[in-house]
Amino acid sequence: MAKDAATQAEEGGGSKKKLIIIIAAVLVLLIGAGVGAFFFMGGEEEKISPEEEQAELERQAKQVGPMVNIDSFVVNILDDEESRYLKAAITLEVSDEEASMELTQRMPQVKDAILLMIGNKTFSELNDLQGKIQLRAELINKVNSLLEKGRVKRIYFTDFVIQ
């Protein structure tokens, strides 16, 4: 009889533990379902068609950002036959005013990077349209690597003379 009482006490304690575990598991599932429902149903975004999305991207691309001018400079460029020079002036279109201010503050770094990059180009690389387009892309990447708060969207060569 003593064994029966001890066994019943253990079984009662065990079933209480099982009941607590089941209740905790049900609560965790309910909380998880509530959180999932909140994220999936809570803030439905307005559905837009691919055509509307494309039109929005084109509109943003046509917007002109703040411009930062880099005055005319002269750089020696590489050529096997003779000494060559490039005289250029550049205007940088940036994403916002904050980027414009940062670019102005970092102008010595930007000019240094531009001069070093152009100085390593050859006459044949810069003489044709494809070379100028490639230089533009390289300059955008280089200047953007210097910026922390914004980015350069486009570069315009406002003066470009090779002699």
How is this fold's topology laid out?
Elements: H1 2-41, H2 50-62, E1 67-77, E2 84-94, H3 97-105, H4 107-119, H5 123-127, H6 129-146, E3 152-162
Antiparallel strand pairs: 1-2, 2-3
Helix pairs in contact: 4-6
CATH topology of the largest domain: Tetrahydropterin Synthase, Chain A
Strand content: 15-25%
Biggest beta-sheet profile: 3 strands, antiparallel
* Overall mean confidence score, pLDDT: 83
The largest sheet has its strands arranged as 1-2-3
Low-confidence stretches: none
Structure description:
By secondary structure, the protein is an alpha+beta fold. It has two domains: 43 residues; 98 residues, Tetrahydropterin Synthase, Chain A, CATH 3.30.479. The chain is 60% helix and 20% strand. It is built from six helices and three strands, in the order H-H-E-E-H-H-H-H-E. Strands 1-2-3 form a three-stranded antiparallel β-sheet. The mean pLDDT is 83.
Which structural traits does this protein have?
163 residues; alpha+beta; Tetrahydropterin Synthase, Chain A; 2 domains; three-stranded antiparallel sheet; 3 strands; 60% helix
Summarize this, please?
The protein has helices spanning 2-41, 50-62, 97-105, 107-119, 123-127, 129-146; strands at residues 67-77, 84-94, 152-162. The chain is an alpha+beta fold and 163 residues long. A three-stranded antiparallel beta sheet has the order 1-2-3.
